[in-house]
Amino acid sequence: TVKIKINGIEVESPKHATILAAAKSIGVRIPTLCQLKMGDIGYVHDPASCRMCVVEVNEQENLYPACETKVYEGMEIITNSAELIQIRKNILELILSNHPKDCLTCSKSGECELQDLADEFKIKNIRFEGEKSVYRSDSSPAIIRDMDKCIMCRRCETMCNKIQTCNILSAVNRGFETVVAPSHEKDLEDTACTFCGQCVAVCPVGALHEKDYTWEVVDMLANPSKTVIVQVAPAVRVALGEEFGHKPGTDVTGKMVTALRRIGFDYVFDTNFAADLTIMEEAAELKSRVVRYLDGDKDVKLPILTSCCPAWVKFIEHNFPDMLDIPSTAKSPQQMFSAIAKEFWAKEMGIKREDLIVVSVMPCLAKKYEASREEFSKDGNPDTDISISTRELASLINQSGISFNMLQEEEFDKPFGMSSGAANIFGRTGGVIEAATRTAYEWITGKELENVDFKQLRGLEGSRVAEIPELQIDGAPLRIGIAHGLGDARKLLEKVKNKEEVLHAIEIMACKGGCIGGGGQPYHHGKFSIIKKRFDGIQAIDSGKKIRKSHENPYIKELYEKFLGEPMGEKAHELLHTKYFS
Ligand code: HC1
Ligand code: SF4
C-alpha cells in the first residue's frame, strides 16, 4: 500500500489503484461520464475522454484524469477546489453545447448521467454555441441509435468489441463528423449485431436505447376484438422492483402479476411454464445424443449447446456457421410459449389466431428481434406479437397510474402459470443447464435425483467447466461448460472447436450474469453487485419451491398427455423446435 492524502484526509491505498478508486474507497466521489468499471468481472474501460474527473496533484499546474492516474507514496490530491468545479462546469457546458436539448422527450430522461451532472453542477446557461451534429438515426426491431445524442464516451465500443467481441461499433469519420457506428455507417440490422443490448445498458445518455413498444401494448389492450395475454420471463421478477425502490434481487412476482391484471391483460401467464417445457425438449435431446454416443454412433453431435438466448443464437449463426448442427433445436421459452398459446390454447378457448395477441415481458432487447424472426410466425402472423423490456413494463405500470408498492400479491393464471424451481433459474447464468441436468439425470439413469442443487454449476466468473459425478458417460463424469458474455462464449467455443476442451453440454448466455444482466433490465450503471443480488434472488425462489424439476410440473405433464405426445415426438417437433441459418 501507499500513503496518500485526498482533500487533506490521510488514506492508505493499494499501490496500483487509480486516484478515482482511492477516492471512492473513502467516500469521495469524483464525477466521470466515460469511465465504466465492472472490476468484478475483470472489465475496465478507462478512455479518459470526458475529462470530468480531472484533479490537482501535489500543487502542480497540470491537472490529471483521476480515472487513469495511479496513486504513489506521498501523493496529495485535491478533488474539489473552486478551479476544478469551474473546469467541470465548462466541460459540461461544452458537451451540452452540441447535445440536443430535448431532455423532456428523451428515452433516457431521469436515468441520464449527463442530465444528472448538469443538474448537480447547476448548469443553467450554456455559454457556447456548438456545431450541431446531424446523424441519421438507425432503428431496428430492438435498438435505436440516435447518434446526435452521443457524447463520445465510447463505452458502447468497449462493450461491443472487448466484452462481447462482436466488433460492430467503432468511431468512423473524423473531427466533428466523428460518430460511433457500424462500418460504412450501416444500419445495425444489416450487420452481425446480436441485439444483446449491452451497448444500450452502458450508454450514459440516450444515444442508444430500446425500441419502445408500450404504446402498441396499450393500443391492443384497448381493442375489444383482441384477447391480449402476457408472459413474463424468469429474470424480470427479481429486477422490476428496483424501478419502484425495492432492493435488487427482491422477488416482486405477486405484485407484478396484480399490476399486469390492472393494466388490463386478459390472462397473466409465466414464461417459466415454457422454460419447463424447454427442459423437457432439451433434456430429451441431451439424453438421445448421450444414448447414441454410448451406442457408438460416430455422427452424434456433442456437446449440445443451449439455444434459448437469441443474441447467442445470432452470434453463433454469424461467427461459427460451421457449428450450427450442435445447438439444441429447442426453441426458446418465449417462442415455445407463444407457439403453444396460438396453436393449442387459442383453439381450446375458441379464439382465432389473429385475435390472440401475445405480449412478452423480457429482461432482454434481443427478444424483440427474436420475436420478429420469420420462422416464428405463421402466414405472416407472429407467434409473439410484442416483446417489451422490464423497463418498459415499469413505464406501463406508471402510465396506468398504478401504485406498485400498494398492490396486493396475486397469482398467475392457469394453466401456463405454474412452474418448477428449475424454470426460475433460467434467469441466471448456469441455470438452464442445471435445470436440464436435473431432468436428464433421472431420464438417463432411471433413478430419482435427491439433491437437485448442482452447486458446481453456479457462480459468476465468465466461464466455467464443471463435472457431474452422478452422471457417468463412458466411465467419466458428464462435463458441462458455461459461459456468459459473448467474449467468454467465443473463447469457450474456440476451445471446443480446437478440441482443447471436451464437453458434453454447454450453456451460453450473451449477457453477464445471464438474463438477470440483460439489456432490458433496470440500468445497473456498471454496478456488478446489483447483478449478484439478482442472482441470489433467483436462487432463493428456486430453493423455496416444492417442485424443482421441470418434468414434475403437473401442467407440463398434462400438456404432453393432452396435446404434445412425447418430448421430441412429431407434434413437439413441429411446434417446439427450430432451425438455424448461416
Ligand atoms: Fe431469459 Fe429465457 S431465461 S432467455 O434469459 O430461456 O430474456 O429471464 O425469458 O425465452 O424462460 C431472457 C430470462 C427468458 C427465454 C426463459
Ligand atoms: Fe454490439 Fe450487442 Fe450493441 Fe449489437 S447490441 S452493437 S452486438 S453491444
UniProtKB/TrEMBL annotation:
The protein, known as = NAD(P)-dependent iron-only hydrogenase catalytic subunit
Reading the lineage from the top rank, the first entry is Bacteria
The 4Fe-4S His(Cys)3-ligated-type domain is annotated at: 83-122
Keywords, comma-separated and alphabetical: 4Fe-4S, Iron, Iron-sulfur, Metal-binding, Repeat
Q: Which residues form the 4Fe-4S ferredoxin-type domain?
A: 141-171, 182-213
Q: InterPro entries attached here?
A: 2Fe-2S_ferredoxin-like_sf (IPR036010), 2Fe-2S_ferredoxin-type (IPR001041), 4Fe4S_Fe-S-bd (IPR017896), 4Fe4S_Fe_S_CS (IPR017900), Cytosolic_Fe-S_CAF (IPR050340), Fe_hydrogenase (IPR009016), Fe_hydrogenase_lsu_C (IPR004108), Fe_hydrogenase_ssu (IPR003149)
**Gene3D superfamilies registered for this protein in UniProt:** 3.10.20.740, 3.30.70.20, 3.40.50.1780, Fe-only Hydrogenase (Larger Subunit), Chain L, domain 3, Iron hydrogenase, small subunit
Show where the 2Fe-2S ferredoxin-type domain sits.
1-83
Identify the Pfam families for this entry.
Fe_hyd_lg_C, Fe_hyd_SSU, Fer2_4, Fer4_Nqo3, NADH-G_4Fe-4S_3
User: Which GO terms of the molecular function aspect are on file?
Assistant: 4 iron, 4 sulfur cluster binding; ferredoxin hydrogenase activity; iron ion binding
Keyword 4Fe-4S assigned: yes
Q: Determine if Secreted is one of this entry's keywords.
A: no
